[in-house]
Amino acid sequence: MTIVDTILVINADSSRVKFQVFAVDSEGRLRREINGQMDGIGSRPRLRATGAGGEKLAERAYPIEAVADVTAALEIAADWLHNEQQVTPLAVGHRIAHGGPDHDRPVLIDHGVVGRLERYTALAPLHLPHNLAPIRSLLANYPSLPQVACFDTAFHRGHDDLADFYAIPRRLHDEGVRRYGFHGLSYEYVATALPGVAPEIATGRIIVAHLGGSASMCALYGGRSIESTMGFTAADGLPMATLPGQIDPGVILYLAMAKGMSPAEVQDFLYRDCGLKGLSGVSSDMRELQASPDPNAAFAVEYFVYRAVLNAGMLAAALQGVDAMVFTGSIGENSVSIRARIAERLGWLGVALDPVENSRHGSRISRPETTPVYVVPTDEELMIARHTLSLLWNRLPSNQVRKKAS
After folding, report:
1. Which is deepest, 19, 36, 195, 210, by most CB within 10 Å?
2. Is the pLDDT of residue 31 over 90?
């Protein structure tokens, strides 16, 4: 297999490195060619990849000692892409969980950018260290290869001060303690997709529910984010797979003072033992919870729905009305039941689903003459590839970017 000009997109966390390869044609259009991941890092490592038509390109297991961390996983994936797929990318785009107060748009990466991002590790402790590991590796081994950081916080950085501030002294806000919002790449993709999906509501007042293992909701108006359920960190808002979502800060103080937990222990508890996993005691996976006969599993599902509905009400207030609603994310795109249960509780906003369209995962799943509800599959990797190509296009002469494709 030989691919011409390409953009490589990397999304790394503690247990896996996901990657996608996009071919670039002479007009700058992107076409997904490879979708893969190196998962099971530190446990049962394996490389899996498929081609543009879904055909299997790789399915390989590795000994645990061969893939001890994200850097080792990246090296295996990079070798496979280069040696077996003949992929030599023009640039690499990275998903970065948190840009802190410094970054409100994608940036070309250098050592200075990495140094600034390292200061914000505590804001995304489960993600940022692993997001940065591939960047450091590529900077060391391929210093001339352009890399672009695309931030999950950037799309929300245009919020009004009323949405951005906490009720704390302003000096802390100036230091970066503010409401950021996350899943910005997903919301940005949905905002750019809506003019093609539903042009009549694309610039209106829209609640977007990104529901998955990590979950949040966003208020869009005029294609821009004006409010989000997530704040200073990605632990806020809706309950998630292992994160509690909104929680009284007094609970944190109680864990530290009454239970004697250290900051590191509190962090580990909140990030790994709460959310759907903590409520149910069964699983952090919504599919398993919905299939379980355990009443605690049923309670966790109902709690997730209830909190989504409460947050929809908050976002409706921020928008001063709702013109449409969009479901996206792994749960939002695939769970007929969760969509139906949330919609049933939002009848006061004029929401009413068409059961047939909902069950067949239609694009518009609402009944006629009701508030439009859509399912829009997200594509954060394509959004990253677009940003990466755009920055690359501005950095290099156009004939150099296109030299192979033309």
Report:
1. 210
2. yes
Q: 396 pLDDT band (50/70/90 cuts)?
A: low
Dihedral angle computed from the Cα positions of residues 228, 234, 237 and 238, in that order, rounded to the nearest 10 degrees? 110
Q: What letter represents residue 232's amino acid?
A: F
Is 2 a residue whose pLDDT tops 60? Answer: no
Residues 6 or more apart whose CB falls under 8 angstroms from that of 42 comprise 15, 64, 67, 68, 69
Contacts of 152 (CB under 8 A, 6+ apart): 95, 96, 97, 98, 99, 182, 183, 184, 185, 234
Residues 6 or more apart from 9 whose CB is under 8 A from it? 19, 20, 21, 22, 92, 93, 94, 95, 381, 384, 385, 388
The phi, psi pair for 92, rounded to 5°, reads -125, 130
pLDDT tens digits for 80-113? Answer: 999 999 999 999 999 999 999 999 999 999 999 9
At 401 the pLDDT is 47
Distance CA 69, CA 88 (A): 23
Residues contacting 63, CB < 8 A, separation 6+ = 45
The answer to whether the beta carbons of residues 48 and 61 sit under 8 Å apart is no
C-alpha to C-alpha distance for 216 and 168, rounded to whole angstroms = 24
Identify the structural domains of the chain with CATH numbers, from first to last.
6-151+382-401 (3.30.420.40), 199-375 (3.30.420.40)
Give the active site residues.
Answer: 152
Q: How many CA atoms lie within 13 A of 33 on its CB side?
A: 22
In this structure, which amino acid lies at residue 199? Answer: P
Average pLDDT over residues 371-380: 98
